[in-house]
Write a structure and sequence with these properties.
This protein is an alpha/beta fold. The chain is built from eight helices and twelve strands. The protein has a five-stranded parallel β-sheet with strand order 2-1-3-4-5, with helices on both faces. Strands 6-7-8-9 form a four-stranded antiparallel β-sheet, with no helix packed on it. About 35% of the residues are buried.
Length: about 240
């Protein structure tokens, strides 16, 4: 079973004509696209949810692309493709080493950009946030440390549990299919079965929910998969 949700891309550029044209090209290829005309607008959009990929320009007002990329990477290890008219080898090398997964020079050739998007998403998959993820007054996830703080008490997560929560956190609020979770949690296991996910989710609820029988963060979507959600009422 293939995850039916298309990839989500946040496109950040101060050129309105590029936003329109590239958004249409990406939409035609099945992507969900959100746009932002500067770094501040991009950061506001990220507050409501994480995309699968960010494509950003370097030369923008208020917050330039490099500063924006650094801020993003401090809170979530989201893949970034730089789309810029700057074509110096030193700039490319520095960005690829520090914040970017790929670099495409303007004017772009869309088939090439599309191929690079596919390659980055296929190679990276879901990324685990580097900083704490606060989902409510009684739940904070520190997936980079494989830990969760539940009602003031820290609990340790197994590597598989951290990978599963990482996949859910990377798609915060959205449904992640059981088959997708299976591929994330047991990537090197031959003949892994959906029951692995079901059992692990029951155990995770016992760890991260105040009341495992009445979950408010780790929710089942019957016949499809699971969602991780933030809640201000997790008592």
């Amino acid at each position: 079973m293939i995850d039916p949700r298309p990839g989500r891309i946040l496109l950040v550029d101060d050129d309105p004509s590029l936003l329109v044209v590239l958004s249409e090209q990406l939409h035609d290829d099945g992507y969900e696209v959100a746009t932002a005309r500067d770094g501040q607008e991009a950061l506001r959009r990220l507050e409501s949810g994480w995309p699968d990929l960010i494509i950003l320009d370097l030369m923008m007002p208020r917050i330039d692309g490099l500063a924006l990329a650094r801020q993003i990477k401090e809170s979530a290890d989201l893949p970034i493709i730089v789309l810029s008219a700057i074509d110096t080898a030193d700039s490319k090398a520095r960005l690829l080493d520090e914040v970017a997964e790929d670099y495409v020079t303007k004017p772009y050739h869309y088939p090439e950009l599309r191929a690079r998007i596919h390659r980055v998403l296929r190679r990276l998959g879901d990324r685990i946030p580097r900083q704490s993820l606060v989902l409510g007054p009684n739940l904070t996830l520190d997936l980079h440390r494989r830990a969760a703080t539940v009602a003031g008490t820290e609990v340790q997560l197994t590597p598989t549990e951290a990978r599963l929560l990482g996949a859910l956190a990377a798609n915060l609020g959205d449904v992640v299919t059981t088959s997708n979770l299976l591929s994330r949690g047991w990537v090197d296991t031959e003949e892994a079965e959906p029951s692995y996910v079901w059992v692990s989710m029951r155990r995770l609820r016992q760890k991260v929910e105040v009341d495992a029988d009445r979950p408010v963060h780790l929710l089942t979507v019957r016949g499809v998969g699971y969602r991780l959600v933030a809640s201000h009422d997790d008592t």
